[in-house]
Predict the structure.
Amino acid sequence: MDIFLTLIINGLSEGALIFLMASGLSIICGLMGVVNFSHGTLFIWGGYTFVWIYKMTNSFVLGILVAVISVFLLGIIFERFFVNKVYGNAPAQILITLGLQIIFTDLVRLFWGATPIAVGRPAYLAGTTIIGGVTIVHYRIFLIVVGLIVAFAVGYILNNSKAGMVIRAGVQRPDMVQALGINIKLYFTLVFAAGAALAGLGGALYAPLVGNVVSTAGAYNQILAFIVVVIGGLGNFVGTAKGCIFLGIMGSFVAWFAPPLAVVANVGLMAVVLALKPEGLFGTAVKK
């Protein structure tokens, strides 16, 4: 039972971390219809920026803030100069975002080197607590709390705010929204940048969890994010959240009981979902 509870907590924290990256990808893919293969490089830019600031200032919070703001600005650059040229053209989106992924990942290696950079957790999040034989890692609880806060905040904005209504309407009829005097292009830029910032937040929080930041982490976590978006259903934000929890807990148990199958299980699950329920396990995909 102790191992079972420990694996559940580990799985929830892994799911929360995947959610921080996948939620941004779900927003960009689902709401804007952009197939974004540059999400992984936004993730590692968040990680490297966090480590850089954290090591210079010894401030965990400042490192997180600078990482999120930096990747938000990077998202604006990506959208304004590259992505907005290819709306509605999926093959071009794949090519241009894949190119951005390669170029900006190489820039990371140029600035910070190709070898992993070690980073620790702040003292107030570094400990563990044992309750009834179950070891609870404080940093993993912190990840779960951050994931819940982000999930509720983004869900509220999308479903209950004027901005969410404009974004949903703009995706369906951008010409009509523009005719009402609303600058829908600005909304799209901000949505893309917000999705990028979530990837940056995920990258910043990922580094202390694994103890280092490395340029190859972006591609691996991007694959996980795409798997979650497929499982949850494209454009289904709640489905993405459920998919993250499911994938996180499944990954935790598979890694414990059958480590060699840890990666295969994720890809295998996505293949089964695509074959049997292409719209995703947790809802109906948005039809465009």
In short: The CA atoms of residues 31 and 168 lie 7 Å apart. The two ends are 46 Å apart (CA to CA).
